[in-house]
Specification:
With 497 residues, this protein is mainly alpha-helical. The chain has four domains: 62 residues, no CATH class; 141 residues, no CATH class; 106 residues; 99 residues, no CATH class. Helices cover 46% and strands 1% of the residues. It is built from 17 helices and two strands. Strands 1-2 form a two-stranded parallel ribbon. Helix 6 runs antiparallel to helix 7, helix 15 crosses helix 17 and helix 16 packs antiparallel against helix 17. The longest helix has 23 residues. The chain is elongated. The termini are far apart. This is Extracellular matrix protein 1b. Keywords: Repeat, Secreted, Signal. It is found in: Secreted.
Length: 497
């Protein structure tokens, strides 16, 4: 052997000391060990003749079982990522912990019939992220892309929930599903366009990718996560809902044999639903416009609708008509008007939900308070301010009202010449013609003496320059009454335009 037996023995002695020390304190690691180096050197410098060389069995010197050194399998610590989902680290985020300082609730779950109501009801109580102020100016690229994707899809959900109040649940669900799938598509496109580690679900395609995103989502029920309403952030990507891709199961009702040969009305693909539903819940602030502008709000007739496929629209139209009828009765009272209109509104909402089942999303609420709040929040005109302004009347309005004037509000002199000569003209020329005809008519009526009606004779007593203006007031009074009748006649309109 080239090495000295003394050195071997010293090495064994050091191991034994380390083992006993570790066993004593049950600790495995590096420790400071002291020994007499001079003594070891002296032993090494002794003549080899004094230390005979021979093979030594280490097992005779120590028992390996007495050493506390042993190997064992150690599992890595379990990390609960909570609502942050599966981590995906990029070049700038190795190590993980800095990401936890800027949490993003990503991804969102697939919309279903079970969570659709919560999607619409709690939309302003789920997180939105102001990218520039929430994150540092550099780094966190994938988290920023996730936050932007969440902002976009929440904005699109808002379009689906409030963009068209006439949709049934299946149409709203179809819209929300399209928005969610676009959210997945646009995020994966953006995530794969940069040199960063691709989000795990984006490695899949088709339905596997969609299912992966849905499985990663933590808030599958779209519960409210913020106590106070959050500020909406506009989407950076346009979303156009294509209703034609939604499949709607329609069952044609059985018709009597005599009725079978009648042709069904064909609904043009260009026809749009035109109805203000649901009406907002009455409040003290809205009472003036609710009662004062009632004649300016439309009513609806349902005879124009096809026989099948639009039963839901007919129910909405009838509900609006009944609510407006109740408002008319309540507004005539001198006391308790607010409580009266609120009762009429809530009764009709309950009636609508009892007949419409769960096809309208708000009807799925078990609590009446939640149901009423949902209907009010989905109303396109919750404060009754979006009523059509009455048309400004002028002498030109005779062209639209002269028949009603002749039948119901005669002025005592013929208007046929006025209508025949002025109404065919363009708008600008018609105004000039109307003024000229009134002046001619005034002179003619006043020159006829006692054959003029009493109202005209009163005008003829005025100075000549004021006579045309007086006659014009007589005509405009009749035009105003006729226009009111015309508005009532056309107040009922088809909810399908």
């Amino acid at each position: 052997m080239s090495s000295s037996p003394g050195l071997f023995c010293c090495s064994v002695l050091v191991l034994v000391c380390l083992g006993s020390e570790a066993k004593e304190k049950d600790f495995l690691g590096q420790r400071e060990v002291t020994f007499d180096l001079d003594q070891i050197m002296q032993e090494m410098q002794q003549p080899e003749s004094l230390v005979p060389q021979e093979e030594i069995d280490p097992s005779k010197l120590f028992d390996p079982k007495e050493l506390p050194i042993e190997q064992m399998m150690v599992s890595p610590p379990h990390i609960n990522w909570g609502e942050r989902g599966r981590p995906s680290f990029g070049p700038r985020s190795f190590g993980g912990p800095p990401m936890l300082e800027y949490p993003v609730q990503f991804p969102l779950a697939r919309p279903t019939s079970n969570n659709l109501q919560a999607i619409c009801l709690h939309g302003d109580h789920r997180p939105r992220y102001a990218i520039d102020s929430y994150f540092p100016p550099s780094g966190f690229g994938q988290l920023k892309r996730q936050a932007e994707a969440v902002n976009n899809v929440e904005s699109w959900f808002d379009v689906c929930c409030k963009g068209n109040q006439t949709w049934e649940t299946e149409v709203t669900l179809c819209c929300a599903t399209q928005a969610w799938e676009l959210f997945v598509e646009t995020f994966c496109t953006a995530d794969s366009s940069v040199k960063d580690r691709l989000y795990d679900c984006c490695k899949h395609s088709g339905s596997d990718r969609l299912n992966c995103f849905d499985m990663d989502a933590q808030n599958k029920n779209y519960e409210a996560k913020e106590e106070l309403p959050v500020t909406a952030i506009p989407s950076t990507v346009n979303f156009d809902f294509d209703q034609n891709t939604c499949q709607r199961a329609k069952m044609a009702p059985y018709r009597a044999r005599a009725d079978r040969k009648k042709k069904e009305k064909k609904v043009s693909t260009s026809e749009n639903v035109d109805i203000s539903f649901p009406p907002g819940r009455p409040s003290a602030d809205a009472m003036e416009s609710l009662c004062g502008h009632q004649k300016l709000r439309p009513l609806y007739h349902t005879r124009c609708l096809p026989r099948s496929g639009f039963e839901w629209l007919a129910r909405q139209a009838k509900t609006v008509n009944r609510i407006e009828k109740g408002y008319r009765q309540c507004c005539k009272k001198k006391q308790g008007v607010l409580s009266c209109v609120d009762q009429k509104w809530s009764d009709e909402i309950d009636r609508f939900c009892s007949t419409d089942g769960l096809s309208f999303s708000c009807c799925s609420s078990q609590s009446p308070a939640d149901r009423y709040s949902c209907f009010h929040s989905m109303s396109p005109d919750p404060h009754y301010n979006k009523t059509s302004a009455p048309e400004e009347l002028s002498l030109n309005s005779i062209c639209d009202t002269h028949k009603i004037i002749d039948r119901r509000f005669p002025v005592g002199f013929p208007l046929k010449l006025f209508v025949k000569q002025c109404c065919p003209l363009a708008e600008e020329e018609r105004t000039t013609c109307s003024v000229q005809k009134v002046e001619e008519m005034s002179r003619k009526l006043c020159s006829s003496g006692g054959r003029s009606p009493p109202t005209v004779r009163q005008c003829c007593k005025l100075p000549s320059q004021e006579t045309p203006q007086c006659v014009s007031k007589i005509i405009m009074n009749a035009v105003s009454k006729a226009a009111s009748v015309l508005r009532q006649k056309h107040r009922k309109k088809c909810p399908l335009s």
